[in-house]
């Protein structure tokens, strides 16, 4: 059989768009073209919401697509995560105190005074906008829904912000923010991510499957190596310095990233026209320069959170978001994420199946080798490139030994630092064995359901009696 | 200048000029979406393709590709967002494959039946490919895009398109072999 001919013969001939749909599409575009209605359109289109006529209900076939529903954003922190955050918070306090001391001694009098007030005087009378975080944010927020979005920035309805403090950097971001997959912005932090500085401007967007939060200035903590690196599928968060000063973050596949960031090059290329940015920052004032940014405000923090709430990824901090051009090094500061993930972020676990549906061995490398990391039995035999890192990761999990669920144990396996080769930050299938052990398997793509080809990573999690811990990781190591 | 690119450029000063792009390409983009994900999804997504394109027209660079490739790329990315997982994309494609293939009116009934049967097998095999592989083959074999256009659409180098297409085609051949439709001519593997 001639495959080309067969493909040609199998070419479907759909009947063509329904005239009503065509008219609706044309009306969508007309509203975009019409300046009077542009804001309304942008709100819907940017969030990926199908345009529907008034009164049109959610249709059955939409169940295969982005569900339009309201659901609470899950509280994310496991015990060890909370512990880690507590340490970070403590570090932040130390950094803040140090920062205040520096500010008091180094800055002009008025700015130092403001900083000091923001950090130490919560009952001052100069109240700022609700978006500016104060020290007494309590209670979890509820995720916004696509269905109830509006054009206006809404206060986080369940976030109690009192008292307010003056903004460290500004009452508004110095740019318009367009986020491609979420609903309307909500003032305040994402649930579970308390502000680390008084006076931070924090705003977040939530979609049904992911969320993003911006805070300015960034949390006072290092950002190097902030994004986990997937060995085979990666996403580069790129800040592009366009002619208009627009900064855009793109989700790129590995080959796309390679094309844009050629090895050895010190400049990046613009993404192709066909790749829309995930997040776009458009300066309010095209003539604005870094000199216009207040001292200490040169870092913008972008946080993406995946839907299961088990992991968060601190994507980057922008050093000079009004700078001309972005070097490869700066691009790398954005970190790398699993492609399956950003738009929207890939869930940590994409499917759950029984053990009898899954292969138990991993696919070998081309030379037939398979690396095996089993902290309880052996460490030897692991591929040289990832032996130490994998062993350390598993040892950390075993030492913690207190995770409340298998998924949390898996999530805790992934550090903020780059992941070893072939370890993926999301897209696992949970396989329940007859003995109660849980194995998380990855087919290299993050696909749901049983695979016929075999997996490239198998991670075993067991209940130790004190909690769940990772005890074994098998990977080809290539 | 290419008329499409000229229309996009003109729309910078006169936004209504972008309507030309809609008129020229809406049906093609809708058909592409329908082939990958079914008419209902195409009805939902096609409009968004053009509003997103309109919103990003300032970024369109005619030196880097044609407007049609640009629109294909936006459509592909929106589909990725809508049908996040492989499983969803696979189910959507399975629904799309229910659309009948083109059969010449003069084709004999038994021949038409055989063609339809073969089409179902090919579409089933396509449905078992990964989403990336399936998109490549659809863009090449059904949308008849050039390698360069596919490269622009997917945002990958043209060499990557060639190698991926070769691999995808090999997998498709294996699936058809498994399905009892053994390719009798090995050189077919290099044609796409």
The share of residues in helices of chain B is: over 70%
Largest sheet of chain B: none
Task: Return the string of H and E elements of chain B.
Answer: HHHHHHHHH
SS class of chain A: alpha+beta
Which bin fits the share of residues in helices of chain A?
A: 10-25%
Q: State the CATH topology of the largest domain in chain B.
A: Rna Polymerase Sigma Factor, Chain: A
Average residue-wise pLDDT of chain B: 79
Approximate strand percentage of chain A? 15-25%
Question: What does the average pLDDT of chain A come to?
Answer: 55
- Write down the overall geometry of chain B: globular
CATH architecture call of the largest domain in chain B = Orthogonal Bundle
Explain what the structure shows.
The complex is a heterodimer of chains A (478) and B (192). Chain A has helices at 3-9, 19-33, 38-46, 79-106, 109-120, 254-260, 328-333, 339-342, 387-400, 406-412; strands at 154-155, 175-179, 185-187, 201-206, 211-216, 235-236, 247-249, 279-283, 301-305, 312-317, 336-337, 349-354, 371-373, 428-432, 438-442, 457-463, 468-475. With 478 residues, chain A is an alpha+beta fold. Chain A has two domains: 87-342, no CATH class; 349-475, no CATH class. Chain A has a six-stranded mixed sheet with strand order 1-3-4-5-9-10, with no helix packed on it. A six-stranded mixed sheet of chain A has the order 12-14-15-16-17-13. A three-stranded antiparallel sheet of chain A has the order 2-8-7, with no helix packed on it. In chain A, α2 crosses α3 and α4 (79-106) runs antiparallel to α5. The longest helix of chain A is centred in the first third of the chain and has 28 residues, at 79-106. Mean pLDDT of chain A is 55; it is low at 37-131, 133-163, 221-244, 310-345 and 374-386. By secondary structure, chain B is mostly helical. Chain B has two domains: 1-99, RNA polymerase sigma factor, region 2, helix turn helix motif (Rna Polymerase Sigma Factor, Chain: A, Orthogonal Bundle); 100-192, Winged helix-like DNA-binding domain superfamily/Winged helix DNA-binding domain (Arc Repressor Mutant, subunit A), CATH 1.10.10.10. Chain B has helices spanning 3-13, 19-37, 39-55, 67-82, 86-96, 109-128, 131-142, 147-154, 158-178. Chain B is globular. Residues 181-192 of chain B have low confidence and may be disordered. At the A-B interface, α1, α2, α3 and α6 of A face α2, α3, α4, α5 and α6 of B.
